[in-house]
Each structure stands twice: as structure tokens, then as C-alpha cells.
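Researcher: Good morning. I'm working through a list of sequences from a screen, and I'd like to move beyond sequence-only analysis. For each chain I'm collecting a predicted structure so we can compare shapes side by side. This is the next one on the list. No need for commentary yet; just the structure.
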Amino acid sequence: MNDTTQSQSDDSSDQPKWKPLTRTQRRVFGVLVEKAKTTPDAYPMTLNGITTGCNQKSNRSPLMNLTADEVETALDQLRNMSAVAEVQGSGRVAKYRHYAYDWLGVDKTEIAVMTELLLRGEQTVGELRGRAARMEPIADLNALKPVLDSLIEKGLVVSLTPEGRGQIVTHNLYEPHEMRHLQTKVGSMAAAAADEERSASSPPSSAPVASRPTASAPVAAPT
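Model: Good morning. C-alpha cells for this chain:
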């Protein structure tokens, strides 16, 4: 099945269907999209393949150790959201595919960016550009900017720090309490980094030099 087909659900509409996902749901969803792009010969995926992809050590943050039962539960939940479908594989082995294009309402470059954010969480735009480029060509930060602007306008991406050097962004599929925690954490880190940078750029203050007491003239001996 070709991952470039963007109209993927029989009941698709013009409106995206996305909603916040749990940590396990995000990992499972991200793995399905990633593998569809990077290893299309192994897509759609079996339950075992998805579980292995969820727990792999590279291109993942945080590292997870999900069981097949946990992954299957997440797949069932994603199916109920119309984000994933079960299809019949060879030998009657159940396989799964994603409906990410319709569910999120994105194009192929936007889905590459979203997938990296789902698999790794918050990151700088420089890191994101390099990582997403393994799935779709993104030449440089100038090429990434309109993609991010579009995702931000759609509500799928949030900027956690101001635009500029070291800007940090993340996806908006966190549950509300997770997003609040993340915004607080990144805000505190950014403030600490700014304070450190200001301190490093400020000239050291000169400590006042204590004046030595003037030596008293010797007292003449009485004659």
C-alpha cells in the first residue's frame, strides 16, 4: 500500500479529526507513520512490528518498554478515533495502517514534522529540520519555516519559546495536564539559560580596593 495516498478513509471530510492522545497512543501512531515512510515494504505493520518500533532505542524520546498488550490497547483506541485501521495481512495475520493525513489534515512534509515531534517530543527547530528530513526533503530552516507556520495555524504545533536562535517547538497532541507541565518546564529552562547568558555577557564588577592606613610618623624621644 502506498503511503503517499493522502485520501485514506472512506468517510473522510474536509475537517481534521485529531484530538489529544495519551503517551502510548502517540508513540504507536508515530511509529506507524514513520515506518510507512522509511520502510514501506514492511507496511502495513503487524502488532509485533509496531511493538518493536515503539521500544527501539534510536529516534525515540523518551525510551519506552511497552508490552504487546499495551500496544494493542492503544491500537484499538486509535481505531475508535478513526486514526488507524486494521487490515488483513498475508496468512490472515492482522496488520495496521494509519489515516494520519486525513486525521490530522496535513500534507506529506507536515506529517514528517509531526511524526518527529510525536516520537521525540519538544526540540529546537534546527534539530527538527535535520530529523524530519530523513522522511521528506527539507533543505534548510528557511524551507522548514512555512511548514511550521502552517502547522501552528492548524493548531497542531506549539512554539514553547520565542522565534529566533534555539526556538523550541512541540506538537499539540498532548493531554492538557502534560502540555501545562511541559510549558512550565521549558519556560523555566529558557529563563535560566537567559539569566546565564546575561551573566556571561556582563563585565565583571571591580571590587573596591581597601586603602592601607597611613603610617604614623615616629614619636621623638624626650630629651
